[in-house]
Design goal:
single chain; 426 residues; alpha/beta; 18 strands; binds adenosine-5'-diphosphate; binds aspartic acid; binds magnesium ion
Length: 426
């Protein structure tokens, strides 16, 4: 008998029929003798619906008081789906109880709409498990030191599930979703994408941070920190599918590199449409210029991603960086009204129609020329690279948004990711 955590995403919880299927799947695992904790997302579309209502009533809302109410609101989506799942399990004849984040409690910091989990009290969950119940814990939320409800950022139920699994020292955290595992790239963009049987923790971390939304990045960080066995698998198989088969399906996130396996140079391709580029042109090429620009941006609470400073000419230089789309206008205003006049810059330009495409693979550590192969492939497609950023196991380029799909498909082919599973390692 093991303690297992299941997480079900919004699509998997999307209708009464689907919730009934989740209940049947969980019942199967419970009847096999496992202690079951289930972390559901809100029903699909619900979080967007709620946040849409907030936007209607407070279109220009911002600040702590505003974000506090967003969390009060958005957290109800998971409260509803959790109660519905408990009812469905009870209808299957199981004892089941649901808890919100504050009832567990899942303690977080006070950063509304993007709170971080700090600790989880496992006593109440354990007591109910020991009493033979299936325990349902709302995804996406917690409570701060002042008893305010917080949420963990979009996609945060993944993180709730992994954190709960870590706190309970679960044997495995199984992320059930609308795809049957982690693919070489988003199968919605490249139909030839293949499912990986395994992916290393480091690669998964890069894929998630570079835009693959199949797992929220913080869930992968948690899994790494607490060595939580983590698997991504389909919730769309028949719920009564053989349990042993199901337990081995999907994609396993592994913590050890398997020396025996011949590794693909590139394991996956990630992309992010949610970026925008800003440039400050003709700034004096003097020490401290990067700090003066990016310091002001950081003070405005804007996260910067790719950064590029050109080499100076005639005592002047150009400086570019990317931010999330949502921060674009705010950053453009800041640069135009405050930073550029102060530095005596010639011009500020911006482009919200860019995207970032990245290749990821542990194999890049031991192979040279991978980045140049990427650049050649893009050049063959006549795609202009605007910015480049590299680290040990990834290379990212910023390109015009309209070439995103073309670039991802071409790179997928270039790095042999279209090949059948047995010809490249997994
Ligand atoms: P859930 O509601 O279950 O949390 P998400 O929509 O958040 O599901 O994440 C699953 C989606 O992630 C898939 O439908 C797929 O389109 C997308 N995705 C992006 N990159 C990948 C990838 N490399 N492998 C699998 N799915 C991916
Ligand atoms: N319901 C939240 C969202 O839509 C959290 C999640 O689904 O993981 O972002
Ligand atoms: Mg998700």
């Amino acid at each position: 008998m093991a303690l297992i955590v299941h997480k079900y995403g919004g699509t998997s919880m999307g209708s009464p029929e689907r919730i009934r299927n989740v209940a049947r799947r969980v019942a199967k695992w419970h009847h096999a003798g496992h202690q079951m904790v289930v972390v559901p997302s809100a029903m699909s579309g619900e979080t967007n619906r709620l946040l849409g209502l907030a936007k209607e009533l407070a279109p220009h809302g911002s600040g702590n008081a505003h974000d506090r109410e967003l969390d009060m609101l958005a957290a109800t989506g998971e409260q509803a789906s959790s109660a519905l799942l408990a009812l469905a399990l009870q209808a299957e004849g199981l004892a089941a109880v649901s808890f919100t984040g504050w009832q567990v409690p899942i303690r977080t910091n006070s950063a509304h709409t993007k709170a971080r989990i700090e600790s989880i009290d496992d006593a109440r969950v354990r007591a109910e498990l020991d009493a033979g119940k299936v325990v349902i814990v709302t995804g996406f939320q917690g409570i701060d030191p002042n008893s305010n409800i917080t949420t963990l950022g979009r996609g945060g139920s993944d993180t709730s599930a992994v954190a709960v699994a870590a706190a309970l020292k679960a044997a495995e955290c199984m992320i059930f979703t609308d795809v049957d595992g982690v693919y070489t790239t988003d199968p919605r963009v490249v139909p030839e994408a293949r499912r990986l049987l395994r992916i290393s923790f480091e690669e998964m971390l890069e894929m998630a941070s570079l835009g693959s939304k199949v797992l929220q990045i913080r869930s992968v960080e948690f899994a790494g920190k607490y060595k939580v066995p983590l698997r991504v698998l389909s919730s769309f198989t028949p719920p009564d599918i053989d349990l042993v088969l199901e337990a081995a399906s999907g994609t396993l996130i592994t913590f050890e590199e398997d020396e025996d396996m011949e590794r693909a140079v590139v394991s996956g391709i990630a992309f992010n449409r949610d970026e925008a580029k800003l440039s400050v042109l003709g700034v004096p090429d003097t020490p401290g210029i990067a700090y003066q620009i990016l310091g002001a941006v950081a003070e405005a609470n804007v996260e910067v991603d790719v950064i590029l400073q050109n080499s100076g000419r005639d005592g002047k230089t150009d400086f570019s960086f990317t931010v999330q789309q949502g921060d674009y206008q705010k950053t453009l205003d800041l640069l135009t009204k405050v930073v550029a006049p102060k530095l005596g810059a010639e011009e500020v330009t911006g482009d919200p129609r860019i995207c970032k495409v990245s290749i990821v693979g542990i194999g890049m550590r031991s192979h040279v020329g991978v980045a140049s192969r990427m650049f050649k492939c893009l050049s063959d497609e006549a795609i202009n690279i605007q910015m480049i950023s590299t680290s040990e196991i990834k290379t990212s380029v910023v390109i015009d948004e309209k070439y995103m799909e073309l670039a991802v498909r071409a790179l997928h082919r270039e790095f042999d990711l279209d090949q059948p599973a047995d010809t490249i390692s997994q």
